Amino acid sequence: MRTAVGRARPGNGGSVLMSVRPGGNKHALVIDEADHFIGGLICDERGEGPPDTEALAIVQSASTAFLDAYLQQESAAMAYLNSTAVLELTNGRAEMLAR
User: Fold this and answer.
1) Average per-residue pLDDT in the chain?
2) Residues 36, 37, 41, CA angle at the centre, nearest 5°?
3) Cα–Cα distance list, 40 to 9, 27, 37, 75, 95 (Å)
4) Which of 22, 31, 64, 74 allows an S-S link to 94, with CB 3.0 to 4.6 Å?
5) CA atoms within a 13 Å half-sphere pointing along the CA-CB vector of 10
6) 96, 17 in Cβ contact below 8 A?
7) First-to-last C-alpha distance (Å) of the chain
8) Domains in the chain: boundaries
């Protein structure tokens, strides 16, 4: 299983990933059992495992919220990034960490 740097997993250990960085406007999306290429759907067709369309949808949603929050100054998008919505909407598969 490949996950985020340091083997962070949604709901446990993700704080280790963020604890080494100074606080303020930092976000990390952690998706359980996803490689960096989403099973070959992005960047590199040699990704590990089968294509992971669910993980791709999670990345797309989080990326859109991030861009809306920081480029469009949308308060609802920023609230989404700083909430537990990703964890809840993905049934615990993914988590948005904020610091």
Assistant:
1) 80
2) 150
3) 21, 24, 5, 33, 21
4) 31
5) 20
6) no
7) 26
8) 5-98
